[in-house]
Fold each of these.
Amino acid sequence: MTGKPYRLAEGGSRIDRNARVTFSFDGRDLQGFAGDTVASAVLASGQKMFGRSFKYHRPRGLVGLGSEEMNALIGVGADAKAEPNLRATQVEVFSGMVAESQNRWPSLTFDIGAINSKLSRFFPGGFYYKTFKWPRSFWKHVYEPVIRRAAGLGKAATGRDPDTYEHMHIHCDVLVAGGGLAGILAAEAAAKAGAKVVLMDENPVLGGIADITAGMVDGECVVDWLAPKIDALKAMPNVHVLTRTTVVGHYHHNFLMACERVADHDPALIASGAPRQRLWKIRAGQVIMATGALERPIAFANNDRPNIMLASAVRGLIGRYGVSPGTQGIVFTNNDDAYLTAFALKKAGVNVQVVDSRARPDGDLVKRAQDDGIAVSLSSVISAVEGTQAVKAVKIAAYRKGQGRVITERKVDCDFIAMSGGWNPALHLWAHNGGKIKFDDALQSFRPDTYTGAITAVGGANGTMSVADTIAEAQAAGEAAAKAVLKKAKAVKASKVEVTEPKRAALESLWFAPATGLYNEGNKHFIDFQNDVTAADLELAQREGYESVEHTKRYTTFGMATDQGKTSNLNGLGVLAEATGKSIPEIGITTYRPPYTPYSFGAIAGPLTKELFLPVRRTAVYDWHIGKGATWEPVGQWRRAYTYTGAGEDKHQSITREILSVRNKVGLLDASTLGKIEIKGPDAAEFLDRMYTNMFSTLKVGKCRYGLMMNELGFLTDDGVTVRLADDHFLMHTTSGGADRIAAWLEEWLQTEWTHYKVFVTPVTEQWSQFALAGPRARDVLKKMEPDFDVSNEAFPHMSFKIGKLGGFPVRVYRISFSGEMSYELATPAGYGMSLWKALLDAGEEFGIEPYGTEALHVLRAEKGYIVIGDETDGTTTPDDVGMSGMVSKKKLDFLGKRSLEQSYLKGPNRKQLVGLLTEEPNEVLPDGAYAVAEVKDKPPMKMIGQVTSTYMSPTLGRSIAMALIENGRARIGETISFPLEGGKVVKAKITDTVFYDKDGGRING
Amino acid sequence: MLLVTCPVCNAIGDETDFHFGGQAHVARPATTNPEGIADDQQREYLFTRINPKGLHFERVRCDRGCGKWFHAARDTMTMEFKAFYGITELPPPDVIKQAKGAWAEYFAMRMKNQK
Amino acid sequence: MLKPRYSIFSLARNAMNYHKDWERAWRSPQPKAEYDAVIVGAGGHGLATAYYLAKNHKMTNIAVVEKGWLGGGNTGRNTTIIRSNYLQDPSIAIYELARSLYEGLSQELNYNVMFSPRGVLMLCQTQHELRAFQRTAHANRLAGLDCRMVTPAEVKEIVPIINNDPNCRYPILGAYYQPRGGTGRHDAVAWGYARGADDMGVDIIQNCEVTGIQREGDKVVGLETTRGVIKTKKVGVVTAGNVSTVMDMAGVRMPIESLCLQALVSEPIKPVIDCVVMANTVHGYMSQSDKGELVIGGGTDPYNNYSQRGSFPALEHTINALVETFPIISRLRMLRQWGGIVDMTGDRSPIIGKTPVEGLYVNCGWGTGGFKAIPGSGWVFADTLANDRPHKIAEAFSMDRFTEGRFIDESVAAAVAH
């Protein structure tokens, strides 16, 4: 032992003893070496406690070696960079790192929450379902807040994540998940056969547990034999090797997700512009699952005390980091593998003895231990652990398989325990997408069975534990995978290797070690450490009838912690099996859900944040709107100018100004977002007759016509003006929000229903900039622009169009109006958009032209009673409801939605019909969506007869106006109806027709 | 993430490159017989759907490819595609043979009408 | 109650004996040869139906048959949101009945279902969405619901972690707030109803799959199951995603498609959000469970799907939206994702009532929103079954609405924008 109590004098394949690293844990400055994890460095400093458990707040230490760790969860970083619940075993230390323990207050060693531990007897599994019910209001206001504060683990960041994330999409012939012995050899074989191979491993260093595995290959220990192969593999041009990269999920058709922790271990990389993490989306021809196996804890009394670890973890700490958990160790096992840990400890000069639950294991390793003079107690288990914040001593009891209680026991002092209950294949990826699994008696665990998909399991992940078998299996699988994908794979001659490994005795399952005291009462045999689920809890769930393993899981929360049951599931099944007398397969297993290990939302969002989140579609004039101080209205993916508020006015004033300029002078609107679809072909006219409620085959070339569109249910879905450019050529305008939807809709009918039509549908919305020039002086502005076509009212009447040049700009000019004023919509190729816009404003200056926004547009159209799809209609509105039955052709035999108009409810009485509303008090503007009632009562419920669809203060009329859908509205014109608002206020309004301004339409044709 | 092959342009892509259009082979009564469509007929057309556990036939559009609609035969349990075929076509005979329940009835009826 | 009641005292008493004496929450009975009625599907809706058949209509010689484990379908897979602030009258009626029953359900069932009225906040992120929710607000107020519009400032107060940057892609213009909406513990709802129903003599038969529905002419006479034939004159089918399959056995084809709805939870963290937030414009919603997990709902996979598997696209889309809406979640991690098979009707509203076959009743089509409706759904369906005519509230949800064009379309609350 060195000055640092737990750092060994030598050893540590992962650390560089010449590179010291200083970091802080719970405010204490600690020293470690480059290559250390927080787990190894903190333990080396002599600290055994890493955190507090979820429910009982029991002190917890390190258990595992890698991502299976369920106890030592820490928070790293602060403020906007804080990241909770990281596994100390995976976090690589760097200078300046700030780490802290979790779920304790005020401190790790003194934690108020620990009171739960004292009361734990009153908190069995699912206790909260049985209490906290009275009085009713207390759940929300008293019990729940307390529970919420006590639960949870770490703390979230406090601001927007300053780091960046990336997405990568790759295709490969063979994806190998896991870079241990099996993965390396499988990848090598596949690559040699010519396959494009990607190998991903969760750890910073390849090799898996080769460094703590028994056996010799060609006279070398496994890790040394593997080293050159790893280098060679990395050098192959058709192989891509990624470390710190976890394959987290396997989805349909061999789609896999992997998360690479690019820079978490080295802030310098972030400083140099690297993303923090990278999400890999992989489509693999074949998947080779070489994810290894996970060691099982053993359920014995107080098996959660700090410094009780998995045997493999102890072995790894010694070999990789030169750290021993203590000076006096006990290895508790039911299999041979853990003896390797005893040897490693002895070699490191740590006192150790072995407690083995088996009666007469006859393997080489057991023999060797006895020969080496390591005390081995056979037919024995640990029946008690003394010490709360660290192990002080254990009791060792005689045991026969299946024995339920302790007869004799003796006390032995020690300061750590290395336990091994056997190994579970890490078959999660296999099971994510429906791969079948089967129970293996030799392993006493589940292993991959059959799978229809293109995935193979090798090595530990397949339950293959011997080195020789793993090598053979992996090489065969690699070659087979390549053959399966490639048309002609190169033949690979499997390299002959000499493997010597110890003969192993069979494992004997040990699901429950009897504890000191009668019937084990009050003892805690932890199954799910993090969620504080004990064997007793599982048995309770069974007693109470939560028999399905899924019920037991949900009732006790076992297997639902952040390790998703990696270390607890099978032990739980073992306990349930013994409690019910069923076999483990009969108990069944809960579904494996992605991800294998948790990964960040930041990685999932990737680069699609801030301005890249749903990018804004911009018209050619977008920047001009900004310069003019426009406020925005999001419409579809667009942003439209809502109003241009100038100096010294508010929005209401600017909107009023814009409206009046259109009514009295002339206004200019950027209407480029309006959907534009070209429809061309000999059958175009007939096709439009099918799509629209009204007739288009009769439309004359050079003319425009307003069209109504229904869905097949008979409800209005879009509207707009369509113009006939030529006999076989139409241009359809749609709502801005509907443009893409309608284009797809037309295509669908064309391709799937009227397949014989010779028609092309081409969306051209973004090819054109389009501006509405509206107002009594609109024609003057046009003239000023020196059009090469006649703009006189006779030559260019309402609902007609011209193609020509305007001030040198190529334009299509449609004389159509959504404001009720004389109005021209000028379309020019988008490239000219900005210039034409400016030219129009210059030309219009002398006529008092002003740009106007969408709000002014809405008021203008409302004054004229023009409907807006989505305001006056809501997806259950028919043409007749909005008073447009005249636009539903009687002549046409068939068009979309026609038949549905015959359904009884659509023809029925009491439909809501569109009407106008004039409030009794002219300055009273009805609120949006206000409902009218049949009869005002002093309190709800009241019978509603319809709702306001549009409501504005009309500057033109100097009073409020509104439109509404009211039951039998048209028959009620003249009636006054009541709108009860908040606070008992009632607004009365008279029902009118919907046209409030220029009823005879003189202005539009002016 | 399903892997889809467009039988028109042969593009192979993720499900997100395609648009799924629901049950295949739904006949629109009004196209052939605009008059005299019973209410029930219209309901069947608009709402009643074959919703099998197992082999299903659906419409798909090659959204980010050629833009064409086509048909797919897919198992709704395993997500395995059995066939991709044209929008005006019937599935390959060997796939029709695998159809069960309402789908089997439907294809039997189509076959009869063809003869 | 025949069973000993659950309480802090019974807990203490049992603690003395190390909890060895707790009784079973429900029996595991063998199916009888005949019942007065059989409910197919032991999810929340089916169990609630059985509970109210026994409680309100004194029908206790009934059974609930379940092909798997009770509560194992969407009841155990949803994101536990409870609200009633819908737009259409029929929806308001049934969801508010359900919500009000949730208020007292823990006491009614003597089982803590952890109904937590922490508030449901529906963000308005376009002018059009704002107008749509204002309309809903007026309709709900006149229907007597306790809901209100709140300002962006109030939104920030209620949810401090929300992104209220006025220059973000979809700035928050306000929100529609139902203070008495919230969440519940989904499993507990199923378990509580099961325990209560069992207590009144209802047989809950798990691992019993229906393989056929026996008819004599237009009448139901029994069920064929993997555990034998069960005679009965009344069958209530409440099998959500599997409803088409079961109804086919009776020769009734449904206006239903089964899709896979995606959901996920984060690792547990200390409390950061104390209400349910729904952001419909960007498609994401989130709440935090008592355990500390962020509970997040995604969309459905876009094709018919009976595999209850997690998939990626729907989830990715939702996470994008939520990282923008709640920037602090970027460094939190996804713990678990899964899928549930939802049954979608043509208007996305449920079907409750009689069928063309006498004695055969169906309750389905709850789509993505069934959990919040469980008590109300069970209440009206039990009444419909017991009296062989639709309960007042169930009338609007009858299947013939699809023939008449009488749809209950909630999507109109956010109809296409101009």
Note: DSSP finds four helices and six strands in chain B.
Amino acid sequence: MGLLFYSLNLAAQDRAVTGKVTNQGEPLFGVTVTIKGTKRSTQTNANGNFTITASSADVLQFSSVGFTTKEIRVGESSSLSVELTIQPKELEVVTAYGISRGKKSIPYAVTTVEGSDIAQTRRENFINSLAGRVPGATVTATSGAPGASSQIILRGATSIGGNNQPLFVVDGVVYDNQSLNQEGLIGGQSVGFANRNSDYGNRAMDINPSDIETVTILKGPEATALYGADGASGVILITTKKGKAGKTSLNYDNSFRTEKVYRFQEIQDVYGIGRNGIYNPSEVANPYSILGTTAGAGVPAAFGAKIPDSLQKFDNAGNFFQTGFAQQHNLSVEGGTDISNLRLSLGYVDQKGIVPNTGYERFTVRVNGSTKLMNLINISSSLNYIHSTTDKATKGAGGYLLNLLTWPVTNDVRKYINPDGTRVPLRNVVLGNYTLEYDNPFWDVYKNPSQDKLDRLTGNINAGVDITKWLNIGTVLGVDYYTQTGTLGTHPLSRFGFASNGFYSLYSQTTRNINSVSKASINKKIGDFSNTLTLGFSFEDNQTTLQSQKGERFFEREFFSINNTDPLSRDAKTTVSNIRKSRIFANLVTGYRGLLYLSLAAAREGDSRFMSKIVDKDPFFTYGSVSGSFVFSDLAPVKNAAPWLTLGKLRASYATTGKGPYAPYVIDYRFTPQITTGGGYAYDVTGNNFGLEPEFTKSFEYGGEFRLFRSRLTLDIARYSLKSEKQLIAARASYGTGFVIKWFNGGLVENRGLEIQLGGQPIMNKNFTWQTTFNFDRNVGEVLQMPSDLPTYYDSDTWVFGNLRSQYFKGARIGNMASNTFRRNNAGQILISPTSGLPIRDDEFRTVGNREPDFKLGWINSFTYKDFQLSFNLDFRKGGSVFNRTEFFLYLTGYSKKNLDRETPRIIEGVLQDGLENTANPTKNTIAITPMYNSDFFNTNAATEEDFIEEVDWMRLRDITLAYNVPLKNRKVIRSLTFFVTGTDVFMITNYTGADPSVNSNNTSNRGFGGAGIDYGAISTPRGVNFGLKISL
Amino acid sequence: MIRKFSKYFFALLLTTGIFGCKKYLDVNSDPDTPQNPDPSSVMPAMLAGIPRGIQFDARYISKYIQNLGSTAAADVWDTHGFQGFPSALDNGGDIWRQAYYGLGANLNFIINEGLKKGQWDYVGAAYALKAYMFQNCTDVYGEIIFHEAFKENTSVFKYDEQPVVYAGVDSLCRLALYNLKRDDLNPANSALSKGDFVYDGNRAKWVKFVNGILARNFMRYSNKANFTQLADSVIYYVDQSFTNGADDFLIPFDATKNDDTNFFGPYRNNMAAFRQTHMIVRYLDGTSFAGSTAYANRDPRIRHMLSASQDTTNGNGGYRSVEPGQGDPQNANTTSRTRVAAVWGDSLYANPSANRFDPSRGKYVWRDKVVSPIMSYSELQFLKAEAALRKSNAALAYTAYINGINAHFDFINRTVYPRSNVQLYNGAPITAAERAAYLVSPNVKTAATLTYADVLGQKYIAQWGWNFVEQWVDLRRWHYTDTDPLGSGPVFRNYIIPSNLQAFNQGRLAYRIRPRYNSEYVWNRPELDRIGATLPDYHLKQTWFSLP
């Protein structure tokens, strides 16, 4: 096929030209040296040297991946010295379907985070390291416990009742990021599952951060349009590290971390157990009957007399929490030629939590390889195996944290077990009825074991053929297969295990996702117009099967197994989800002289979730985008007038995307088995809806990108608005629907926002450089119209304690919270009970806060001084409500610092509800109360959730790293050696009175805005210090 | 060659991509639960769902109608108060739940599937249950969602006035009758016997049941000017309905676990704070009908229906009772032998077997494995007797009255029940001699002396403990305390207006329950504002049927 066309016309003046190629003085291996216009080429050796036969008139081209290509005329010199400069990476950006595009042509905001920046933070769940680094991303960890899940939302929640997490794509293949939905598990006599007391991780956390080359966040309309239903909430594209052409290298790094939790909800230790100021060791508080309605059940009520100085007080929190320790080891081998490359990496994480008996262990193997066959077909493949184990403790009501906070300071929490192995009850009155009080925190973490295990194998094959210079076709096939198993046991003597004499739950969730994308790319230049047309189609088949079992009534008290339960108490349940999608798409990018770009994208998607066996449904829907960019800095007049403007680009983009319901099988009727007399089936509480259509988001974005003074100063601004109509929600409504919950389709949610990324390199000299980046974002989400005119919609999972929940009304903001409030008269004055002098609670739910911050700001800095490097990430947030539910609980039980002021008599400001409250002369309240002697002052009538909502600002140092590159004289054996120390979550300055405002009362399987901003019984993020080294051979 | 191959490969992939997609996507049905079951699989849950609504709400209605009273004084329902809006409580909202969700939508499914498959028996039975549920629903709540119920893609449901609903119930009954009488059932599909554990698929009995609903329906017009014409309809449909106690519509329980056990039984322990009232005791101990509690005047049914205290020296054999609103003053005194006994048995003051199955425990309908009656032959005979009296046909009324009394003795004495449910009587059944003695006692009147008070009093006894909604309709039709046009004194002789009636009521008694809070007050408020259901005295507003 004429592969070896050599110019036979070897001119007489041809001679051997030699030279050396370097970068900053370091020899470069594997640089391709080609004589321009010919196929004659060679490569540099390990010392950077090359030899090629050329004439003086020839022009040599030096090219290597990652470096700017350079051309040099041979001239008369016979020995050339060539310096290649590193090509600035941001010029090429991987976009939808792995298509690389010059950044100039991209008409929407794209943020790229380097894998090294992520790995450097040494976080087990890499999502947490994105906080502050991506404008428009809101990261909320469920808690600071090992293996905790983390939620990420890009540009505000667009669905009030659907999934708002972005799509994760690793090397072109969709990477599953499910969180186990607890509703698939079976509760017991006193154990319930509602996504609030356990965390099962989010599966994107399985990725080893050390394997990440870059993370590209696509928030913009065009990219998401191409990914359709799944990408409607944004796409996080992860490119993993590949072997590079050149010398084979061996890299190893490690890190050892100690961590300590340093922020707690403060508690009062002045007043002891009792009520109305009188000491009584058996007095309890049981707000909202969280411990059941049995007499004597509750948390010891701290409404008694002052604790006498003679009594010993214990530092129970200090005695309970331990220093966490984590170690990480990463080993990789990589190498390759221009034709083939290979990278093998091993990663190991072992984390022992700050809470006894908790931990997270992960082992990962990844092999990435690629080769080029016959100079024509590019084949790459990767395999990734992950094994992880999470040992966890329960959170929320009945979990160790709340129990620790309400543990009387006069009682030593460490004495939790009798010599015979039985539980030490806190109150003697319990007399063997262990359901009357919560477990001792130590008992809880040691005797109620809970563990998740994961085995995951993901892999992909990626093949591409350059059929002609302008046509490339390729296909990617990916498989993501994992099994997550887990157990949860409650000891027969535990609060939640006593009634059933032990409870044991186990599950096994298997997910098998297959997806493939095939595409053809045509690159053709016609005159001044460059054109790239991509046509393709994709398939997806996602299957998840959750099998769960439970048993009660243990035979052996200490043995946790389903076999140890009474066979009559065993129960099993299967939940299957199978979703298939198919999509055809097209994307045309046309550029005019590198100045103007126009991009059109369209996709037609079929989603199995819209199929029906009963009615005729069309599962296909179409969406698309139109966008353009204008690189005005390349205009000649601009170039002349403003030579300091390296790049000036304006862009605008409009797109539509569709989204399916969060679950399959909701179009056709839903029936559930009945256990009433005669058995059979009846409709599920959630009613189907034959008429459901895709949720549609119309997004508009415009902005600009500016690089000044040779990119010393960069600015990227994006303004956007997202209008999401036909919201798909399963909402409670009038039973007139025939159901308790019903699928609705309608309404309108709008998100508007501003994102700014400002970067600069204020100092750049040989010894000292300083790079700094500000990431600013602000999003305002509003429910403009409720689906089917529903008066309200709430997420019942967030209703974890007291009467506050994530709830929407027409006109509500997207982070809206609603709760009971005090009853007020027409003039807005609080109504007071004429008999007690205490306020009266109103059972209606009213808006009391919005969890969306006013704005967020991330400030990332990186300094290098000679061989030292210092970088840190400061994260600011202004405003946004956080409900301190933990404190609300403590207040109602007497442990909050707000309970301290109890000896001063006071009159609650308000008017009496005596029939005159709405007249011109309401009766002013004059009833004085001394809370110390009237503990009702602290009960749910006199305190509402409203009083525990805080507008929170924070500044937190997410991470800081100091690294030292050991100067090496001989780089033949050791190429580089770096020692580093990294601190994570080193400090937080905040006006928040609780432990950590960035927690989630639920887990990430929650929908809509979820439980973010509701702080209830979750441990704060601990402070960690990592030491380690990186070595490269 | 490779290029060529690639081209073909690509072309092939593209073709598969465009065609064959819809089939590929056709996986949207749950492999774990049937999404389109046969009506025979849905029917059992419908039958089991009826007692859930009635019995749950019986905890409240039974107090308005003084079937039962609270052990505690000044109970909110004993004193004709209410719960629910503006407080967020669903108490009294279960009939609402069952009418729309528990049964309603499911019955529509049975009807639609049955029509498709030619299962006319299921269609008819489902219409019958729908008529029954909606009749109950409007009886309890007054204005309800009828025509707009089950409408798709809306969250706003308009309410209909009672006459519209009663007319709608009539139409549902006609549809039920039409379908139940069809003989051209598709033999390829399951017959009604498969899912019907009440009548075992006996369509003739279902037809009678529907006629019973119609008879009840016509009695809703008893206070209207033209009722004398409609009274014939009551009589006609009663005659088309049950012919003896074997036709009674009784829903049995399996009593193997919480959910298939009688809500009233000891296992589920829901009746611990409920006690028999003066009203029922006085009907049965001779006070009401005979004027004295002398031994000869005591109804032999009393020992099967009511519970006696340890101390039997009170003059009626120890059948103590609570006065509504007053509770049992002795209740907290655990050593007192004069406490009012719990419904579960003589000399019992607490639950004998909470959370434990014990078929031997309990009394009358207050057992784990006894039927929950829905409609009885006895009740219908009293309906006929009242209609006949309204037409001044004393002879007809007397026959029906005696039939009704006899039928209720049979009701207690019945020995065979569906799904092996246990008998209602306590120890030995009532003997023929006891019955005969009762029938000639001063408790039972003659054709010449028969009054409304006798008919509705006996009906009260026959309906006690299960027919709460119908009993409440009777009381409201007679405005609780109306004077007997045929006698002296009130129709309901022992109905006691609690001395501590809720102050807010200003002497008025309850006529309706508010629609379910967590359905209507949260999600359908504008409609409630429109009908006045957000007014504080809505529960005191007379229902349409009780008005002239």
Note: The two ends of chain B are 95 Å apart (CA to CA).
